[in-house]
Amino acid sequence: MAATPSAPGKAEMIDLTKLSAEQLLQIKQEFEQEMTNIQDSLSTLHGCKAKYAGSKEALETFHSDWENREILVPLTSSMYVPGRVKDLNNFVIDIGTGYYIEKDLDGSKDYFKRRVEYVQEQIEKIEKIHLQKTRFLNSVIGVLELKQAAAAKLQAQQQSQSAQNS
Amino acid sequence: MDKNSAALYKKMQTEVESYQNLQKSCVKMVKQRALLESQLNENKCVLDELNLLGPDNKVFKLCGPILVKQELEDSRQNVGKRIEYISKELKSSTDTLENMEKDMLKHREAVAKYQQQWQVAAAMK
């Protein structure tokens, strides 16, 4: 999904008034569809960011004096078995497509920090596109309403004329 | 309805049908392309991460339920190959999509033409 540059957007805005009401309606529908897609991806991205941030927070709570400390390990979300922390400085991280890497505490924290930043960047990019599309959609709706109002006026005039004639 | 306009109507209908079929496969292609794009992105992220690793970092690959240790260099090459493959797939699907859109436009124009002819024929009566 490439960002629509503002220059062609302006060119299209000039053309908007020349389009017929049907064409405008079609554009409006297409844009509304696109907006829903963008909203969906935005919410997915926010979910991803929350997950990464959660993992990072979990790592922040680890202390270096936790060696041999007793913890409860979840087997399922509602069943735990007691265990001991053996190796404090090795975490295995899922980096996607089935690959896992081993990193120390700082490296893992760094990894999640970078991930959160990356996702945030993507969110900002998409929000920009979203804003542009909203503006364009609004102008389409504005022109459409103008056209509809003009058409209604014309119809009213014709009706009153035919009423006068009869 | 006389013979001429009936024939026109039939032609128009076949055009509309093929247009709708194309539209359906077009939607499918778009979905497939989105999937490829997300896979490409994920693989790129993985490669970035692998490139950041030093020789003392261990890499594992998930095979079913177990993790298998991998050589860093092997993993890099593997992911690189995958990116290459997915990029090729993406390119070919973009090409097909473009062709489809062209075909769709042709059918739409044909429908409009037949519609016009049909209306003219109807008005002549």
From TrEMBL, chain A:
A Pfam entry, by short name: Prefoldin
Protein name: Probable prefoldin subunit 5
Listed GO MF terms: unfolded protein binding
Gene Ontology BP term (one): protein folding
Source species: Drosophila suzukii (Spotted-wing drosophila fruit fly)
Record-linked SUPFAM superfamilies: Prefoldin
UniProt similarity note: Belongs to the prefoldin subunit alpha family.
One GO CC term, this protein: cytoplasm
From TrEMBL, chain B:
Entry's Gene Ontology molecular function annotations: protein-folding chaperone binding; unfolded protein binding
CDD domains in the cross-refs: Prefoldin_6
SUPFAM superfamilies with a match to the protein in the record: Prefoldin
Keywords assigned: Chaperone, Coiled coil
Name of the protein this chain belongs to: Probable prefoldin subunit 6
Family to which the UniProt record says this protein belongs: Belongs to the prefoldin subunit beta family.
PANTHER family found in the cross-reference section: PREFOLDIN SUBUNIT 6
Source organism (scientific name): Drosophila suzukii (Spotted-wing drosophila fruit fly)
UniProt GO BP: chaperone-mediated protein complex assembly; protein folding
Keyword Coiled coil: yes
Assembly: Heterohexamer of two PFD-alpha type and four PFD-beta type subunits.
Cellular component GO terms held in the UniProt record: cytoplasm; prefoldin complex
Coiled coil: 83-117
